[in-house]
Amino acid sequence: MPDKEFTPTGGGASLTCGVDVRTEMGQKVTLPFCIWADSSTSGNVAETDAADVAKDPQSVNLQEFADKAAKIRSEVRKPLR
């Protein structure tokens, strides 16, 4: 799936999100991720869940995942001093 820009629900800076599909130890692994970079931070968030590891990449709700990633981003961002 190609990466796309998502604005978190409720607003905020956009994130680039996508779904990485790879094979590890002979098993398909579906891995949603979001990345960002701004003047003070850069980061990435990926999610692995045993229940969803073989999920169809097209069925991943990237807006929902972008909202989760935005919450994490807000917790780790620190203002420049």
Topology:
Layout lengths: L3 E3 L8 E10 L2 E11 L4 E5 L15 H15 L5
Antiparallel strand pairs: 1-2, 2-3, 3-4
Give structural notes.
The chain is of the alpha+beta class. The protein contains one helix and four strands, in the order E-E-E-E-H. The protein has a four-stranded antiparallel β-sheet, with helices on one face. The longest helix is centred in the C-terminal third of the chain and has 15 residues. The chain is elongated and about 50 Å long. The relative contact order is 0.24.
Features:
elongated; 81 residues; four-stranded antiparallel beta sheet; alpha+beta
Unreliable runs, pLDDT <50, ≥5 residues? none
State the distance separating the first and last CA atoms: 38 Å
Instruction: Round the Cα radius of gyration to an integer and report it.
Output: 14 Å
Strand tally: 4
Helical content class: 10-25%
- Global geometry: elongated
Side by side, the strands of the main sheet go 1-2-3-4
Oligomer class: single chain
Portion in strands = 35-45%
Number of helices: 1
Largest sheet: 4 strands, antiparallel
- The class by helix and strand makeup works out as alpha+beta
Mean pLDDT: 88
| H and E order | EEEEH
Summarize the structure.
The protein has one helix spanning 62-76; strands at residues 4-6, 15-24, 27-37, 42-46. The protein is of the alpha+beta class.
